[in-house]
Design goal:
It holds the Pfam family F-box. The protein contains seven helices and no strands. It is mainly α. The chain starts with a helix and ends with a helix.
Length: 105
Amino acid sequence: MNISSRKCNGKTQSMEKEQSKKNESSNTCLSMLSEGCIAEIFAFTSPPDVCRFSLVSTYLHSATNSDSVWAKFLQSDYLSIIAKSQTPIPDFRSLKDEYVYLADN
């Protein structure tokens, strides 16, 4: 390994540490918000956006599974629509699961 590649590796490691600190800092700011607050913010986005947010951190992932988020994406009368369905609709653990099922069928 020559001197220039050692310097490059040192810079890369330094930059990675700096980025890691920035990520920790931004996660700290997010964790200052309650999960309910974050879920309320997510409700103003779209289902694909919520799914993307779930990949960012475990803290956001938890908020993206909130029924209050997915309730905003379902029609207000979705229960009456389901009741009229010719096909039996299975019971779901969450509104997210129900949303995905209804979107696919």
